[in-house]
Amino acid sequence: MSIVFRQLFDEHSSTLTYLLADALSGDAVLIDSVAEQAALYLGLLQELKLNLVYLLETHAHADHVTGAGLMKERTDALTATGRHTGTTCADVQLADGDTLVFGDELIRVIATPGHTPGCVSYRWRHCVFTGDALLIGGCGRTDFQGGDAGRLYDSITQRLFVLPNETLVYPAHDYKGRRVSSIGQEKLTNERVPGRSKQAFIELMDNLKLPPPRMIDEAVPANQRCGDQYAIIDIHAS
Amino acid sequence: MSIVFRQLFDEHSSTLTYLLADALSGDAVLIDSVAEQAALYLGLLQELKLNLVYLLETHAHADHVTGAGLMKERTDALTATGRHTGTTCADVQLADGDTLVFGDELIRVIATPGHTPGCVSYRWRHCVFTGDALLIGGCGRTDFQGGDAGRLYDSITQRLFVLPNETLVYPAHDYKGRRVSSIGQEKLTNERVPGRSKQAFIELMDNLKLPPPRMIDEAVPANQRCGDQYAIIDIHAS
After folding, report:
1. Among positive and negative, which fits the CA dihedral B143, B147, B148, B151?
2. Which of A177, B47, B111, B112 fits a 20 to 30 Å CA distance from A29?
3. pTM of the model
4. Boundaries of each Metallo-beta-lactamase domain copy (chains A, B) (predicted)?
């Protein structure tokens, strides 16, 4: 098989990060990296003799600082985010339907707003990396960062649930040890969306009454600066 | 992408059946087919212009009659099972480590006895089809058909949990709408194996006190005759 696929986990933020590569060319991408794990990623790239070409974000995370800033200093990779994330520092501003190429591999961008206005999912081969739009058995919250439950419902039902049932769902987080789902499984078992009207979903999401994420005040501004380390240091010092 | 992957579900027996094909040659295999779904499989083969080369079984099922008998009448496919299943009618008797080729694709046989003595798993690319050895969050029972909890523990821990964490786990059944797991996920979340010693697992399995499968008296003899339709008709008429 001519591809590399590694699923990595940051215990502190329960973030799932994905390393994909075309083994022939060695060109690789990293989806939703975490600053604290940058040394691990650099070690893997070296061990597997890979050349990082893109640092992709599904959105401006509120629970961890992206590793993109640190990784960009040590590699030639370009940073890329959805055009509506507010991360004007990103090298590539992605729109729905855009393609990203690494080696002979193709990623297609799917706009999946709702958790935040700028959320995108990345479809690659038979996989979709859904960020916080669609989680295993659930979905991202919609009560901060411009969240909109109605838009999230549309993203999940009209952009993700229309993919083939066998499509593998790889989210940005899981808190219960789960690591993969499929569109078919989510259409059957997701606790928030199937069997619920858009209005009922909006009411559910508007009444979750969750505490704010611990790191939101640091993470969102740092991520909107593409994880620039100086920005992080400034924030930590303030 | 040059492969076909379809996951099919038989509602009556909650069986998951897998159609894999090399799209270039059109050569295909069917894993754990169900007699009642044969028309669906034949329709799919026709629609996708595929040529079935193997009808694979993970074991002699106790809960449904294989579709292999019916499919063999209508295709040129060979039937293949683990050599210790007692299905001497199968064209190919598989041993641990054997390879099966369809088009340019390769399947590797892994002996995973315990649910029954003849159980095998099939590893293909980054997937493993585990039959009833490893289910999502659980495992097959070991209280009939020569089941042996100790052997199953060894199969799961020494043959399956040693695969890369990203390896996708596709079982023969799920009763809760789940469709896929991974080795990493099962090592973290399986309710029977992780954190349990072999002895504790044997005690757990020996005390499940499950009712016998509804179809065991019909299904096992029919499957040991490779789903020969005359055998099924005889059984239904008796």
Report:
1. negative
2. A177
3. 0.92
4. 14-173
A107: chain B residues, CB-CB within 8 Å: none
Q: Could B181 and A179 be called an inter-chain contact, meaning their C-beta atoms sit closer than 8 Å?
A: yes
Which chain B residues touch A184 with a CB distance below 8 Å? 7, 179
Q: Does domain B3-211 have CATH number 3.60.15.10?
A: yes
Q: Which residues make beta-bridge pairs with A177?
A: none
- pLDDT 10s digits, A208-226: 999 988 788 888 888 888 8
Strand partners, B169: B128, B181
Structure confidence by residue, pLDDT tens digits, A156-177: 999 999 999 999 999 999 999 9
Provide DSSP, chain A: --EEEEEEEETTTTEEEEEEEETTT-EEEEES--GGGHHHHHHHHHHTT-EEEEEE-SS--SSS--SHHHHHHHS-PEEEEETTSS-TTSSEEE-TT-EEEETTEEEEEEE--SSSTT-EEEEETTEEEEETTEETTEE---SSTT--HHHHHHIIIIIITTS-TTPEEEESB-SSS---EEHHHHHHH-SSSTT--HHHHHHHHHT--PPPPTTHHHHHHHHHTTT-HHHHHHHHH-
Query: For residues A44 and A29, what is the distance between their CA atoms, to the nearest angstrom?
Result: 12
How many beta carbons lie within 10 A of that of residue B37, not counting itself? 24
Candidates A177, A185, A188; nearest CB to B188? A177
Question: Predicted ipTM?
Answer: 0.89
Note whether A180 contacts B177, CB cutoff 8 Å. Answer: no
- Chain B contact set for A182 (CB, 8 A): 7, 179-180
Residue-wise pLDDT for A70-93, tens only, equals: 999 999 999 999 999 989 999 999
Determine which helix (DSSP H) or strand (DSSP E) holds B53, and give its type and residue range.
strand B51-56
* CATH architecture of the domain covering A3-209: 4-Layer Sandwich (3.60)
Contact A160, A133 (CB under 8 A): yes
**What is the DSSP code (8-state) at residue B34?**
-
Contacts of A66 (CB under 8 A, 6+ apart): A32, A33, A34, A35, A55, A57, A222, A223, A226, A227
CA distance to partner chain A, nearest, from residue B173 (Å): 13
Tokens of A234: 């400034």
Query: Is any Cβ of chain B less than 8 angstroms from the Cβ of A37?
Result: no
Say if residues B33 and B131 touch (Cβ distance below 8 Å): no
Check: CB of residue B63 under 8 Å from CB of residue B213: yes
Q: Which of residues 103-132 of B touch A (CB under 8 A)?
A: 125-126
Domain extents in chain A: 3-209
The shortest C-alpha distance from B187 to chain A (Å) reads 9
Residue whose structure tokens are 């979709």: A128
E strand or H helix that includes residue B80: strand B78-82
